[in-house]
Design brief:
binds adenosine-5'-monophosphate-propyl ester; globular; 670 residues; 32% helix; 3 domains; GMP Synthetase, Chain A, domain 3; 5-stranded parallel β-sheet; 30 strands; single chain
């Protein structure tokens, strides 16, 4: 049993930061979609006074419906149905709608591949809306030809290449449900996801480039398709075909009758593919994310509400316009890549830039080179990346002309005021507003954020609620707390892009999100509102860690560790890390007769990499004779956290089974 979440005491937010405010410039406000507090207040008040009326109006105005909806919301807590009775197709809303307009021949996607280690530039491709539409239709026909039907699940395991977006949109074209798996996840993770959602097909590539190396995606898929549990269960038995994109040209094995090359399949595919008529509530995608217990949860999003959230927030939060070159640096394997690389920008007719590689390969100026080369106007990235850029030094951005930038965004973890100020000054030259956007895989789109042109920002605060959103900070009893008091962040009312459940597990959905605070959605985050009502997110208060912007469940890493033959027991906690926000520290007890060694430590790290993926490898593994436990047998993570961060051990230790355990743990320094 995990310990009950408790509200963290403090964070880096100081009164000094709250006093430091940055108002949008008059020039920015004048040109923005929403440029004054009065205009914002008018819309905000409407959205709060009658949210259903507001969302209904927005849904009619923003989306193209094949069949109009009859009712805005049907709410049977905790199950929501938005735009009941309506039918629409996401690919029509992202592509077809632009075809008869001036947008048809504008760049929808600009892509740059990873450059070679010798400095040879990466490949470049641009797809106009017209071209993207054609590719999506052709690939949609390939999916159909391979027997994929509306509602079937398709796993997408690709690098950051345009085909990732094409595959996602092709699924939406024919009504299939995609589940994108980040390329950094292992064969085991692919197999687990296939099994959970019963996927019929996997779309992958012969590899992806990363820091000069090749990630063997097809090889991982081959391995995933073979995995059997100790009881002999074949995890990926549901998969009947694998489509393979040629990306690197490296040799891979292809199994006749199961594996098909993308380029061969598409060759004779028709470029017309009638869009499926999808119910507003039809599942759109499943995205797996870590929780406090067990295996990753399949977050389920549905069609109409999700698209409305992604579209509206992209327009207002990023002030996206005709002329923008918009770059969200997230991988499509994460929700940010879904909403803000693919669906949000395309639904708005924007130009979305995709980059395949890492920020520091071959040199730490990769991002700034790209901003300069493509005249990027909006940049949306994560605090981890910003902190790394700070460390690498100002000389890298300073080598390039960043004058095209007009807006900067941050997402994925709390941004410390120092990183915020560096981003603002060195990258934005004090000209560009920063939008620090708070949201989650579950929320589908941004819920708490400044609106550029309107909201005065404070470094480190995600500021205020988006239209039609009701966040509140509450105490253990679920009551709202006074300003400047820490508590749990909840969302009081349903919103269109909220998750519709966990794939195949309604009970877990109820229990994780709707039982902690009665009648409200529990975010898992700690938060505080300042005197101006601004939200300051402190971070996760459950057993989920945020390592370099990636969500990692401690329980998942623990079970990966104990699946190693040498390990008896393990407990994983976070410690603060200057670059990654949090780092993973694993306390491990070994089976009798196994002696700790640095080789074993490395073996365990590799083992976790194999079980989950490189992102989950512990930064630090500490061997212990015993783990501190209460008399009822619960591991006392609180103490382990203190030990991991080198802090003096505080709090009530009287329930500890064996006090001497603590001194042993803290005295171990290797
Ligand atoms: O703890 C919050 C943190 O990231 C968590 C959600 O992670 P994930 O589902 O992977 O989605 C990340 C991208 C939307 C949240 O519970 N988080 C996200 N954005 C912020 C944040 N913490 C502070 N400030 C943010 N802007």
């Amino acid at each position: 049993m995990p310990e009950k979440p408790s509200v963290p005491a403090g964070s880096f937010t100081s009164v000094l930061n709250e006093k430091r405010q940055f108002k949008p410039s008059a020039a920015f406000s004048k040109a923005a979609h929403l440029g004054s507090e009065a205009a914002y207040q008018k819309l905000y008040r409407e959205s709060i006074k009658s949210p259903e009326k507001f969302w209904g109006r927005m849904a009619k105005q923003e989306l193209i419906w094949q069949r109009p909806f009859k009712k805005v919301l049907q709410w049977k807590e905790p199950f929501a149905k938005w735009f009941v009775g309506g039918a629409l197709n996401v690919s029509v809303n992202c592509l077809d709608r632009h075809l008869g307009t001036a947008t048809a021949n504008k760049a929808a996607l600009i892509w740059e591949g990873e450059p070679a280690a010798d400095g040879k530039p990466g490949e470049e491709r641009t797809l106009t809306y017209q071209q993207l539409h054609r590719e999506v239709c052709r690939f949609g026909n390939v999916l159909k030809q391979k027997g994929i039907q509306p509602g079937d699940r398709v796993i997408i395991y690709l690098p950051m290449v345009p085909e990732a977006a094409i595959a996602m949109l092709a699924c939406t074209r024919i009504g299939a449900v995609h589940s994108v798996v980040f390329g950094g996840f292992s064969a085991q993770s692919v197999a687990d996801r296939v099994q959970d959602c019963g996927a019929k097909m996997i779309i992958t590539s012969d590899g992806g480039y990363r820091r000069g190396g090749v990630v063997p995606l097809k090889k991982n898929v081959d391995d995933a398709l073979e995995i059997r549990t100790s009881e002999g269960i074949h995890l990926a038995a549901s998969v009947s075909s694998v489509i393979v994109l040629r990306r690197t040209g490296h040799e891979i094995s292809m199994r006749t009758g199961r594996d098909f090359w993308w380029h061969q399949e598409i060759e004779h595919a028709a470029s017309e593919c009638p869009p499926a008529r999808m119910d507003s509530e039809a599942p759109l995608f499943i995205l797996y994310t870590s929780g406090s217990t067990g295996k990753p949860k399949g977050i389920l999003h549905s069609t109409g509400g999700y698209l409305l959230g992604a579209k509206l927030t992209t327009r207002y939060v990023f002030d996206l316009k005709e002329s923008d070159v918009y770059w969200c640096t997230a991988d499509v394997g994460w929700v940010t890549g879904h909403s803000y690389v693919v669906y949000g920008p395309l639904a708005n007719g924007g130009t979305s830039l995709m980059y395949e590689g890492a920020p520091n390969f071959p040199e730490p100026d990769r991002f700034w080179r790209i901003v300069d080369k493509y005249r990027v106007t909006i940049l949306y990235t994560a605090p981890t990346a910003i902190r790394a850029f700070m460390k690498w030094g100002d000389q890298w951005p300073n080598k390039h002309d960043l004058s095209s930038l007009r807006l900067l965004g941050s997402v994925g973890e709390p941004i410390n005021p120092e990183a915020w100020m560096w981003y603002f000054t060195v990258i934005g030259k004090k000209r560009c507003p920063i939008v620090d956007t708070w949201w989650q895989t579950e929320t589908g789109s941004i819920l708490i954020t400044p609106l550029p042109g309107v909201t005065p920002t404070k470094p480190g605060s995600a500021t205020r609620a988006f239209f039609g959103i009701f966040p509140e900070v509450v105490d253990e009893q679920g009551k709202g707390v006074p300003r400047n008091t820490g508590g749990k962040l909840v969302i009081r009312k349903p919103w269109p892009s909220m998750l519709r459940g966990l794939w195949g597990d309604n009970e877990r959905y109820k229990q994780v999100y709707w039982s902690e605070v009665k009648g409200s959605y529990f975010t898992g985050d700690g938060c505080r509102q300042d005197k101006d009502g601004y939200f300051w997110i402190v971070g996760r208060i459950d057993d989920v860690l945020n390592v370099a912007g990636h969500r990692i469940g401690t329980a998942e890493v623990e079970s990966a560790l104990v699946s190693h033959p040498s390990v008896a027991e393990s407990a994983v906690v976070g410690r603060p890390d200057e670059l990654k926000g949090q780092a993973l520290v694993a306390f491990v007890t070994l089976k009798t007769g196994v002696t700790p060694s640095s080789q074993l430590r490395e073996q365990l790290r590799q083992h976790v990499g194999k079980e989950i993926g490189p992102v989950a490898k512990p930064d630090d593994i500490r061997f212990a004779d015993l783990l501190p436990k209460t008399r009822s047998g619960k591991i006392m993570r609180r103490f382990l956290k203190q030990v991991a961060s080198g802090a003096e051990i505080k709090g009530d230790t009287t329930t500890l089974e064996d006090l001497s355990v603590l001194s042993k743990l803290s005295s171990q320094d290797d």
